[in-house]
Every structure is written in structure tokens, then in C-alpha cells.
Amino acid sequence: MSKTVLEVENLRKLYPIPRGLFGVLRRDSQQCVHAVDGVSFSLKRGEILALVGESGSGKTTTGLCTLGLVEPTEGEIRLEGQAVFELAQGSQCKELRRKAQMIFQDPYESLNPRQTVYQAVVEPLKVHRLAAERSERREKVTAALDDAGLKPPADYLQRYPQELSGGQRQRVVIASAVVMNPLYLVADEPVSMLDVSIRAEILNLLLRLRDEHQIAVLYITHDLASAAYIAEQVAVMYLGIIVEKGPARQVLSNPQHPYTKSLMSVIPSPNPQRRKKRIVLKGETPNPIDLPSGCRFHPRCPEALPSCSQVVPQYQSVGEDHQAACLLLE
For residue 185, is pLDDT > 80? Predict the structure, then answer.
């Protein structure tokens, strides 16, 4: 049975808003942005979980919290049973960084234009002192570039980022993340800024690295099509909470929450007979500072009941390991 690598329980991250002088004098209550508000999930070794949602839903903040880069307001995050933020703040920070890595969205911003490919990939090895000899470092860098699909690796070692295409840059970023053989990887929209023609190549690369190294991957995306392709599990986020989660095939083929249904309805289908009526949501996403009462989705939900504005929905089981938080399911 696969070992659980990451456990997240009731994660909350609130960002207080400065009250200003008049707010202090009036003694107004502190207002907060509810970036993440009660998220729970787990990841096993070799498993990929897709965290799906529109911009501002809290996906990236969740990923940063699991790496110890952002301090959570409440909740527990454990990597191999150890509290992540305690590791990040203590003497074991380097151990955490060796075990958990991140692939950022923009490969153009992720690499230092003054560093060669070799310098970018070898830097983690130097910082963590994982290879004492120069020959050993070069061997590890070459192997990482080869794993990332940059072949032959020797042709790329002395190139600078501006001499590479977008896909090649992202491969370098991936190589610098996996060169330390991490247990856990956060991939934050890793293909959103790449040409459509090479997105599948990068997704296949992540799948291959997952299979070869048994890395647990948190795949953050707004693209349900790529989530269906790469992930075993899917969690759909809306306004800081997970509204539906479960096996990817079940969630995406039989969505239960109205928000998931609306996301699925706008995915283009090449087969005219399989095209569904688009569910276009009205209005804008509510202000994360002043959240609506009851279900957070009810102001935009086309199926909302009067009780949805008053009662907070609890998770309902709609299949094996498939859950959704919606009063319509009760």
C-alpha cells in the first residue's frame, strides 16, 4: 500500500487588511482576505492530485503553505508525519527543501538570465552539499537534464535561458527541481504559458518522472482537460474552499456540484454530438473579504435554493471516495 507523503487538515490562510488610522480610532474589527478557508486533503507517494479552480480561488496559496513558504493561520500540514512549518522555521529547513520542491508557472521568471543551464541546475546541489566533487555534481546535473528531456545534455550545459525556447526553459526548471530527488512536488500551472504543441510533452514528462521516482505531485491548474489527463485525484476549489473532490474520472465524468458542472460545460468538444449546453455563471466572484452567508457559491448558482443562503453545506458522499459540498445533494 502506498505511503502517505502529505497530509493537510483544515488549512486556513487569512490575510489581515490594514485598518488605517481612522479604523484604529473607531476600533473597527480587523477585516481579512479569506485566501484559504478549511482545506483538507492527502497525497500518497506516486500520486497526482489536481487542485482546480479559477483565479483567486486559493490554489497557489494552498501550494505555498504545503511547502512552508507561507505560514498558515490555522490547520495542520504534515510531510511524512512532520509539521511542515516547524521544519521550515527550524534547523531542518534544508531537509524540507530537499524533500519538497516547486515548479513555477513562468519559466521566463524562474531562471536567472545571468546563469547558464549548468549553473541553474547545480546550485541546489551546492546549497545542500549533496555532491562534494565537481565530477559528481556534473554527473548529477547531466542526469537531471537527461531526465527532463534535454538531450543530449552536453549541448545545453553552457547555454543561457535567452538561448532556449519556452518549453526548454520549463524543462530546465523541472531539472533543477528533481535534481535532489524530492518526495513532493508542487507544479503551479506548469504548462499554462507554453505553446499548445508542447504542453502534452511537459505533462508526459511529469507523468514519467512521477512513475520513475514515485514523487507525490500537487498539480495546480485552471484547465480541467489537463487535470483529467494527468491526475488520479481532483479537488475543485471555489473562494478558498474545496467544493468537490474524488477520483478524477468520477469527478469529471459525473460532476455533482453546480460549480464543477459549470466548469465542465465550457470545455470544448470536437464531437458535436457530445457538446453540452454551456452553463454561464452570472455575476462576479464574491469579495473574499466579505463572504456571502451559507453556501459561498449560491449568489452565482443557477440551481440555488432559498436555504442555500442560510445553511453552510456539508460534504455528501456521491460515490466511492467522491464527495461534494452542496445542499442540493441532501
Answer: yes
Q: Is the pLDDT of residue 123 over 60?
A: yes
What residues have CB less than 8 Å from 120, skipping those under 6 apart? 111, 112, 161, 172, 176
**In this predicted model, what pLDDT tens digit does every residue of 18-68 receive, in sequence order?**
766 555 455 556 788 999 999 999 999 999 999 999 998 999 999 999 999
Region for residue 285 given its phi and psi (left: phi exceeds 0; alpha: psi -120 to 50; beta: otherwise): beta
Element (H, E) at 261: helix 258-265
User: What's the rounded Cα separation, in Å, for the pair 57 and 236?
Assistant: 9
Give the span between the Cα atoms of 188 and 148, in whole angstroms: 17
Dump pLDDT digits (tens) for 198-207. Answer: 999 999 999 9
CATH code assigned to 4-329: 3.40.50.300
Residues 141, 121: Cα–Cα separation, whole Å: 6
Domain ranges of the chain: 4-329
Where would I find the beta strands (DSSP E) of the chain?
4-16, 32-44, 48-52, 74-79, 82-83, 100-103, 184-188, 216-221, 233-238, 241-247, 315-319, 322-325
Integer Cα distance of 152 and 169 in angstroms: 15
Q: Count Cβ atoms within 10 A of the Cβ of residue 253 and give its class: 0-12 exposed, 13-18 middle, 19 or more buried.
A: exposed
What does pTM read for this prediction? 0.92
69 class by beta-carbon count within 10 Å (0-12 exposed, 13-18 middle, 19+ buried):
middle
Residues facing residue 315 across a β-bridge: 325
Question: Residue type at 22?
Answer: F
The DSSP annotation for 42-109 comes to EEETT-EEEEE--TTSSHHHHHHHHTTSS--SEEEEEETTEEHHHHHHSTTHHHHHHHEEEE-S-HHH
- Residues 52 and 238: their CA atoms lie apart, in Å, by 9
